[in-house]
Design brief:
The structure holds 2 protein chains of 2 kinds.
Chain A: H1 2-15, H2 45-72, E1 84-89, H3 93-96, E2 99-103, E3 113-118, E4 124-130, E5 146-150, E6 170-176, E7 181-187, E8 198-205, E9 213-218, E10 223-226, E11 229-230, E12 244-249, E13 255-267
Antiparallel strand pairs in A: 1-13, 2-5, 3-4, 4-13, 5-12, 6-9, 6-13, 7-8, 7-12, 8-10, 10-11
Chain B: H1 2-8, H2 10-16, H3 22-36, H4 57-70, H5 78-87, H6 89-92, H7 98-105, H8 118-122, H9 127-142, H10 151-159, H11 164-180, H12 195-206, E1 214-219, E2 231-236, H13 238-246, E3 253-263, E4 266-275, E5 321-328, H14 333-345, E6 356-360, H15 370-373, H16 376-382
Parallel strand pairs in B: 3-6
Antiparallel strand pairs in B: 1-2, 2-5, 3-4, 4-5
């Protein structure tokens, strides 16, 4: 009700030239990047067309492969317990092309820097500096985050697709951290704008030191958030709708961070029976999720 | 148009036209007097926390008490006071004190902000006050302070059961206990302030990978040639001792560092004593290879291959064999030399014969606060 009222007043106030209050776009999302998409950074249309035509050949190849797999119809049916199916392994420069690293400085909202590179042993290295200083623009309340995110899963001709992790129930990562904790994000973006910001989070604690660690995190532990806020009505990760995966360094304390990653995989553990770790209580109507 | 001229010549109207209703005239008069009279600052109140000279918990609570006692009946400026109180928490060292947060919430009057009908309840009655307490709760969350059961009736009496601060409180009481003890490496409580204690905890945390690790504290002054006089926290397990004693004498071992481990925002430098990684022995039998299977004939079992291999310990990492980990008080090369001497004394007479290479990064990095490192103005100009 409140949301509806806000958006209605918004529609009215948008016609005015001077806003007396900040515009609240509560549930209507204009843009899947949440207003961070900058069309000015895109190359001119002519270049885009040329690049697109260049991609055509590879895309037809991908499409042909898809068609072939469809007619073969040979899906994996048995998922042996204890076997890690690696989704992303770091080690080559091609493996880094599937990821992008961003920080708050990219959106002029802070001064952190980060990079995703290879170590000399051939592992992925997500490192940088967290800077907690707040730019004096009067809008940003707090800053200091760096993030790496896998590129959106796509079918041929750059159509959006999803990863299907339904047979698995564990996320397995082999990492070597620096004692900081990181946030793991599973992005389950759907078709409608309501689901564009659906994310499932959990913390990755790192030990620090020269030893590698294998973190096994059940998907049932991931909690549901949207735009960084934990939601009241919790649901478990829709494992058939994984759009991308990300790791965020955003501790309260600034400074350098350093996370080496060997692989990120998924596993089926038959001993893990939990479906969702967070119990829900019934509340009066209009109390939760408002 | 009439109103504008009224505002402009308000006082004139007041004097000449007594026929206009009294309240209305007074209202215009007051506003004009306020704009004209610059000396009397009725709206802008001085931050009462700035004037406190001795900044501690007691004076903080006293300032709150003073504010409450100023005016019992027509108390005003709660929101501004609470916001300034929140801003000054760090200086008074009370940012982790639950009682202080509760005292701040207690400033708001009970019963005055309760919604009286459905519409008020739905449309965030007294929004400034509600948002102020939401910001207070958010600050609590950021500082890791968990509310207690007493806060619920407090918020209930101020904003009613449909107030947004109360909902935020419920959310905090649901999630914060769940996340409080989540870390597999919990930091000690109370958090150590001494660097030595922190370094000891850091080394314990690093070597928690092997439960047999023993943390030893050496003093570099025990070595006669040492220049520095500082502590060395070193850790080694039985397995690492065996690995070190098995190490070939002609192959060098390395002292590497400093690397950083972060303990709750505190960077601790540590050093590693490592050897070259052991070559990976490929098993000559591939378990998935079915081409060379010998079928059993006449009930004869196929011969069991005698292929024994020592399971590599956790210290034999793929990029190094780690013999020991240490942190020293000065992180200097001299203190590391004392560390090697101590290890030598502690049962590795051979360590003197093995060439030890110091691969230290150029200069030990000073522990600085990155927030103070650069001038924010420069950064802003860069953008």
């Amino acid at each position: 009700m409140l949301n509806l009222q806000r958006s209605l007043t918004c529609l009215i106030c948008r016609r005015r030239s001077v806003h007396t209050s900040p515009v609240l776009t509560t549930f209507w999302e204009k843009d899947d990047k949440g207003g961070y998409r900058d069309w000015k950074k895109m190359p001119p249309l002519k270049d885009q067309l040329r690049e697109g035509l260049k991609d055509l050949k590879t895309e037809i190849g991908v499409w042909a492969q898809e068609m072939k797999e469809r007619f073969e119809g040979d899906p994996i049916l048995i998922f042996r317990p204890g076997e890690v199916d690696v989704q992303w392994r770091f080690g080559t420069t091609e493996s880094l092309n599937k990821w992008m690293a961003t920080s708050d400085a990219d959106n002029n909202e802070g001064f952190s820097t980060c990079s995703l590179t290879l170590t000399k042993e051939g592992k992925g290295l997500f490192s940088g500096t967290l800077d907690k200083r707040i730019p004096k623009d009067g809008k940003v309340k707090r800053s200091g985050y760096c993030s790496m995110k896998s590129l959106r899963v796509r079918k041929s001709f750059k159509r959006d697709s999803h990863l299907d992790w339904t047979p698995y129930n564990m996320l397995v990562m082999r990492v070597r951290g620096d004692g900081r904790s990181y946030l793991l994000n599973i992005h389950a973006k759907g078709y409608h704008d309501l689901t564009w910001n659906d994310m499932y989070h959990f913390v990755l604690f790192t030990r620090g030191g020269p030893y590698w660690q294998v973190a096994r995190i059940p998907f049932s532990k991931f909690y549901f958030g949207s735009k960084g806020r934990i939601q009241d009505r919790q649901v478990s990760v829709p494992l058939d709708r994984i759009a991308s995966f990300g790791i965020t360094a955003g501790e309260r304390w600034g400074g350098d961070f350093h996370l080496e990653i060997d692989y990120i995989g998924v596993e089926f553990d038959p001993n893990h029976r939990e479906e969702f770790a967070y119990e829900m209580y019934k509340t009066e109507s209009g109390i939760a999720s408002t | 148009m009439f109103l504008r001229s009224l505002a402009k010549y308000g006082s004139f109207f007041c004097k000449s036209q007594y026929s206009i209703e009294r309240n209305f005239i007074r209202h215009v008069q007051v506003s004009q007097r306020k704009f004209n009279d610059k000396s009397e600052k009725a709206i802008v109140r001085k931050d009462s926390f700035d004037s406190v000279s001795d900044k501690n918990r007691q004076t903080y609570l006293d300032t709150i008490k003073m504010f409450i006692n100023q005016d019992h009946i027509y108390r005003r400026g709660h929101v501004e006071f609470i916001y300034s109180a929140l801003k000054n928490m760090e200086e008074f060292g009370v940012s982790k004190d639950l009682e202080v947060y509760k005292a701040l919430i207690d400033i708001l009057p009970k019963g005055k902000f309760l919604p009286q009908n459905m519409i008020q309840a739905e449309f965030m009655h007294y929004p400034k006050q509600q948002q102020c307490i939401i910001d207070l709760l958010e600050q609590m969350e950021e500082n890791g302070v968990m509310p207690d059961i007493e806060m619920e009736p407090q918020l209930l009496n101020i904003f009613g059961k449909r107030g947004y601060p109360l909902r935020r409180y419920w959310r905090m009481m649901y999630w914060m206990p769940k996340f409080k003890n989540l870390s597999p490496w919990p930091v000690p409580d109370p958090f150590p302030t001494d660097t030595f204690d922190l370094a000891k905890y850091a080394i314990e945390r690093i070597t928690s990978v092997d439960v047999n690790s023993v943390v030893t504290v050496y003093q570099s002054s025990d070595i006669p040639e040492s220049i520095d006089d500082t502590w060395i926290v070193s850790a080694q397990s039985k397995t690492q001792q065996t690995l070190l004693s098995e190490h070939e004498l002609d192959k060098p071992i390395y002292v590497e560092g400093p690397f950083t481990v972060w303990i709750r925002g505190n960077p601790i430098n540590y050093f590693v004593l490592r050897g070259e990684p052991k070559p990976l022995i490929e098993g000559d039998s591939d378990p998935d290879d079915v081409s060379k299977l010998r079928p059993s004939l006449f009930g004869l079992r196929p011969p069991v291959t005698k292929f024994l291999k020592v399971i590599p310990s956790v210290h034999e990492q793929e990029d190094a064999v780690i013999f020991s980990v240490c942190a020293t008080g000065t992180s200097s090369k001299d203190s590391l030399l004392s560390w090697i001497r101590h290890l030598e004394k502690d049962g590795y007479p051979n360590l003197g014969k093995i060439p030890v290479v110091f691969k230290l990064r150029s200069g030990t990095k000073e522990v600085i606060n990155p927030d103070e490192g650069k001038d924010p103005k420069d950064q802003l100009d860069d953008k």
